[in-house]
Amino acid sequence: MKNYNSVFLEEVDYQVLSNIEKIIQKSIPFKNYKSPITYSLEFGFHAENGKIDILIVFNKKFKKFPSSIFSLDNLKVLEFSCENQSFNDLNIELPEEILRLQS
Fold first, then answer.
1. How far apart are CA 48 and CA 94, in angstroms?
2. Closest by alpha carbon to 57, among 49, 72, 103?
3. Interval 57-98: pLDDT, tens
């Protein structure tokens, strides 16, 4: 486990946050989100047992969707946006597994 902002994360989860942090040039804070999850949560992440389950990132510095997010195997909630760009403009091929996600 690796320490990311005082939260111990599995290596893969740590690397995903570190990569996103480099892109947006700011640290991603841990948030103690409450269930049920509502939309428009604050920028940040939540993790249980070293695995990220909620990730809320929005920033104008994204040029493309960070595909490393797909390696977060415990992710249940993802809110991702880019200023002045639609998702279609991010030029990414989504994996077939994304079709099986449930709300």
1. 26
2. 72
3. 876 677 777 778 888 999 888 887 766 555 566 565 555 666
**For 35-45, what is each residue's pLDDT tens digit?**
666 666 678 99
List the structure tokens of 77: 């909630």
Three-state secondary structure readout of the chain: CEEECCEEECHHHHHHHHHHHHHHCCCCCECCCCCCCCCCCCCEEEEECCEEEEEEEECCCCCCCCHHHHHCCCCCEEEEEECCECHHHHCCCCCHHHHHCCC
The partner residues of 7 in beta bridges, in order of sequence, read 4
Asked if residue 64 lies in contact with residue 90, where contact means CB atoms within 8 angstroms, the answer is yes
Which residue is associated with the tokens 């989504």? Answer: 94
Which two structure tokens, joined as six digits, stand for 52? 């990220």
